[in-house]
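ERR on first pass: missing label on line 2. Operator R.T. fixed the label and resubmitted. Corrected input:
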Amino acid sequence: MIDYSRIPASEITPEAVYRRRRELIGLGLASPLLAVSGCTEAKAPIAANSGRSGPDGFTASDTLTRFEDITAYNNFYEFGTDKSDPARNAHSLRTKPWTVVIGGEAEITGSVPLEALLKPHTVQDRIYRLRCVEGWSMVIPWQGIPLADLIKRFKPTSKAKYVAFTSLADRSQMPGMAYNSIPWPYREGLRMDEAMNPLTLLATGLYGKPMPNQNGAPVRLVVPWKYGFKSIKSIVRIDFTEQMPKTSWNMLQPEEYGFYSNVNPAVDHPRWSQASERRIAGSDNKLFANRIATLPFNGYAAQVASLYRGMDLRKWF
Amino acid sequence: MDWRWFCLKTLAHALALLPAALLMHRALSDALGADPVAALTHQTGEWALRLLLLSLAMTPLRLILKQSWPIRFRRLIGLYAFFYASLHFAVYLFLDLGSYWSQIGADILKRPFITVGFTAWLLLLPLAVTSNRWMMRKLKESWQSLHRLVYAIGILAVVHYYWLVKSDVREPLLYAGILALLFAIRLKPRLHSLLASRKAADHGQKPA
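pass 2 clean. output:
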């Protein structure tokens, strides 16, 4: 476990370096001219949804979203339903101490302090595209641990077919809960093989900084091939279950939000098309940025399509 | 028109254009947040709805104040409602859909909230075109019936907003409440006169 408070500010990777890092990684997709002239790609126009990643999907060649956009435009209804509400209100979230209850069909269960939960694991870097069901998307450099590594430690039994996640629901810290926009607490879930996929991340930070409160501090899920609402924030419970767990948006509007909610341009949300998206990235004014095509599984088909082989994705949306 | 009316009308124009000017300024200086196209779509739509409700409030205001001046602002406000609705539609069409124009047909046909919003804008067109003295004279009584379309437009606009939101319906319901109140105030005197005439009729039937 990294104690961020003990890391000197100079050790935290500044944003500019983060952006240049992609050139250093050298996926060779950025314009060589730009690289030579030393321009950061954040200045480059937003290209079409490249969908290009390393073979493992852990990095993306897309232009990054600015830290200030990632932290000012959030859906976190516990702090209000306007996308600017979480940045305004989430300062009241107390992230220390934090415990996560591990329960259900596993050999080891119980209440675990966050430090102990994360300690045995090495924090890894991931650059993932995040596609919101509302039709916008970001590209976010996360830090976190693969969920699979954590799950293995608790030895789920053969009965564990699904993993259920629960967000904190504390009215004293979360002013948005005064209005029942969602039946609290917020709930999400994954099938066991989805949870074990190497892409699935339990994120503890972004841009090399501890997870900002409005982004789901101190620990949240990131499932890059599913619509953003599956990536549940501020997790306090992880349960292994035999039955498909109930999930919040599905409970609210089952005909609009399925359990799987894989990004799929071919299956429209009943109220809006999912064929394209507004990419929030780079430092140019996004007023005249063109929409880009949405890719099946948000561009992670190579890594996850096999999980759904033989399933009718129109039925299991 | 005397100079006081001229000043008042100028002020009304300035006030009605102010949101558009502020939005334009914020849009061009990249001050609309992470998703400026969504912000611009939402804001222009909300101003269209506000001005539409304000134009619908002029008749009730005349009834309450028992003065005729609110009516003199009705056309101006109504035309600005159309102006913001057109901006709203243009932002969606040119800034949001942009190169994805092929999506527009499917959007209008398949997404009920867009169908309803588009219908509201289409219905506003004939009202905007006939909002001048020449057309009023030309259409005579039918002008009045044509402009009653605004009630339907008000309902469509509120439904458009209500169907758009994911779960927090407070704001659309607030606008729906205001619309219902405006309708109620208009209907009240008619209801009264209807009741009065019934009563009179009842009295008339009673044997002396």
